[in-house]
Amino acid sequence: MMALTGARPRRFSGRLNPPAAAWVVLLLFCVFALAVPRFASAGNLENLLRVGSILGIAACGQTIVLILGGIEFSFGASAALASVVTVLALPSAGVAGGFAAGAASVLLVGLVNGTLVARFSLPPFLVTLGMLMVAGGGAAVLAGGLPIDAPPSDAFSWPARGRVAGIPVPILAAAASFALLHLLLAHTRAGRLWYLVGANGTAARLSGITVWRSVLAGYLLAGAFCALAAVILTSRVASGQPGLAPNLPFETIAACAVGGIPLAGGQGRAVQTLCGVLVIAMLNNAVVLLNLPVAYQQLMIAAVILGAVILQRAPLLLLLLPVRPARQLEEDRS
Amino acid sequence: MSARFLRRSADGLRIAGSVLPVPFRVAPLCLILAVAVFAATAPRFLSLGNAANIGAQVWVLALLAIGQMFVLATRGFDISVGAVAALSSVCAAMACNAWGLPGLAAGALAGLLCGLVNGALVGTLGLQPVVATLGSLIAVRGLSLLITGDGQVVPLDAAGAVTRLGFEPMPVLPAASWAALVLAVGAALLVGRSLAGRRILMAGSNPEAVALVGVDTRRVQLWAYGLCGLFAGLAGVLMTVRAGSGLPTEGAGMELQAIAAAVIGGTALSGGIASVAAVVTGAAFIQVLLTGLNLQGVSPFVAQIAIGVVIIASGLLETLLRSLPSFPSQSRTRT
Questions:
Q1: Domains in chain A: how many in total?
Q2: In this complex, do B142 and A121 lie within 8 Å of one another by their Cβ atoms?
Q3: Coiled coil located at which positions (chain B) (predicted)?
């Protein structure tokens, strides 16, 4: 029941209801702005958003899968596969064709994941781990184990470095992705079905919903978000790399969890994912600016991820912040 | 009364007796099939040397998989085991340099500590297992880099004496393999015969019911993750013994193989079913697959694809077996 009330779609007219993670974003921003030199400059913030947009777009896909009660580990490997396929297809298919081929390979991975989860009822974690190895191994076989360079061209670098009306393309793409995700989740039938299927698949089936179609659509759409992220990533690194972005699935899961989306399914909003992505992006940016040794970078990232998640689990600690626990908000609304 | 009930209901989960429960048949079948195929196609596969080689190599993966099994059985998940093994390997090497051979135990201790931290995050604080162990994966990697000065291998002063433990056959197996075998038997006894093991399986198969009969599921989770960390630490010690040095960056990717071995070994991802013997067989299958493909001159990337396919196929097989009419009664209750 809790799950269903939490999943109730918002209306635009309703009062703005920031997730608890928004306070974490604000706090972290203030701390970094004060403590990290050059953090709050316009150039750095643009760079931060540009780098974070790839994580954000992929996290949109992860959000759908998590709402469905699943989990997606194959994002990084399929992005690597896409980059290799793109670069291999460049000479014969041209820039647009190459990107299309790369995106198609990600969609194919998403289709396999969705089919195995939806039609054969396999555990999502098992399927996507298996596909992680298949796609990662496939990328390495295709590339012969080594990165392959792409011939540099303006068209090829446009998805990562181009600008439309002065705004970098990746940031626009991420904004569009989050807008699309919000519309899907809050204002469409498909989105509402995802919440129902994720909260209680049996109840969804008994009330006459074709559950497998909803799940398959979710995984395919997650693949589409990942494909967009992969195109931008490939364009940015300008090469086909079989070892590209091994941490992408974990970072997207961490972003969703930091945003407060439970991994049990049935709950989650686009704005929560956005907050989580901002936290991770600011963190990654700050550790680079601080120029810490890798060991300290990793310890700091781990501390903030765990700290942000623990803060949301332990309401007593939240008393330190001017925000009410999530459960109280639920009661206010009902 | 309740203790009697527990004992009887858990009997069906044990693989002792004449009937081997269906999910535990997958790993032996896969192993026999793989050995048969490679014996027929790879020329040097069926030699005594190769068998001894696989027999000694398999234990790092087997220990990781046994640890993972405890966590999977509680419906949990630990992606930090590879990093924990690497940290434990470094700790074992450093302690061994300082205090001699008994110092190797420091590796196991480090693993146990990491596991208990995971357990506290998941059990006591109620974090999602993926997020908690992801956090500790990153932190533990950072720690390994920190104490080794950016990931340099820690050479053992007594490398000769230590590697002799790992390679020189005592009676039949090297001392390290005997030790791992004893640990596996200990884990099997823990799962099949002890109250703690029973609680771990119960907490996975029905947490609400277990809480209702007065078991603190959070504490069960704490110790399941602790055991997982302990076995990851022991795997790290084994890595140090075999390599003759502490390996701070080793073990990346091992967590996936360990999960694969545990799943092929019939550990139900919905929790509640586990067998150490089947998990070790699953680890042996993966090792045979890797070694066999290697002997055939196949690229390691293709082997990676093969393992991915095997993971998914093992899931499909389990679904297939579950749909057989006899399966539910055999797995959940005594027939």
A1: 1
A2: no
A3: none
